[in-house]
Amino acid sequence: MHDNKIREPIAGARNYRNIIFALILFCAGLGFFSAGLSSYLNLNTLYLTDTTNIRFIPQGIAMLFYGTIAIGISFYNMLIIFWNVGSGYNEFLPNDEKINIVRLGFPGINRKLFLSYEFKNIKKIQFLIKQGLNPRYNVILVLKDNRQIPLFPAQFLLNPTETEKKAIQFANLLKIPLENIKI
């Protein structure tokens, strides 16, 4: 019955950029923490450099603080990667005239986010183009009550041609207008 459905998988936090960022942050935090600890203990815990001449107040305390924060943030990022937060799919069901948007969140009762919209409640599809230092391309579902639901996460970088093709495909499937927005 659903042989013409379209299912777009969405990659979550489990990607190489996030993994590399978490590892670099952990290593840098560990270095800062070790340097601050060695200034407190008055012995060299880092083998790459001599940290015994760093005064504990104020440099050592600052290095301990920044190292602890960096290690904490890297553990948080590693948990997000492990749980694959943000992954899921967009499913277009023309026979049922519905769109299902499914995403994974943090563990708990509401881990799985499930949104379902009927075609008749959708006003238009927007193709967002943001250029500049941080370019972004996205397809946005606009409902009749003017709610805007992005169909792809912000870090999901597609080239503009591929993103525009997806927007055109979705607009044709839903038989609704497509609007280009340039920021």
Verbal overview:
By secondary structure, this protein is of the alpha+beta class. It folds into two domains: 16-83, no CATH class; 86-182, PH-domain like, CATH 2.30.29. It contains three helices and eight strands. A hairpin with a 7-residue loop joins strand 3 (98-104) and strand 4. Helix 1 runs antiparallel to helix 2. The longest helix has 28 residues, at 56-83. The chain is elongated and about 70 Å long. The protein starts with 5 loop residues before the first strand and ends with a strand. The mean pLDDT is 88.
Order of secondary-structure elements:
EHHEEEEEEHE
Q: In terms of structural class, how would the helical and strand content be classed?
A: alpha+beta
CATH topology of the largest domain: PH-domain like
N- and C-termini, Cα separation: 40 Å
CATH architecture of the largest domain: Roll
Strands of the biggest beta sheet: in what spatial order? Answer: 1-2-3-4
Largest β sheet strand count, sense and barrel closure: 4 strands, antiparallel
The outline comes out as: elongated
Helix count, DSSP H or I runs of 4 or more residues: 3
Uncertain residue segments? none
Domains (count): 2
User: What is the class of the largest domain in the CATH system?
Assistant: Mainly Beta
Strand runs, count: 8
Rg on CA atoms, Å = 23 Å
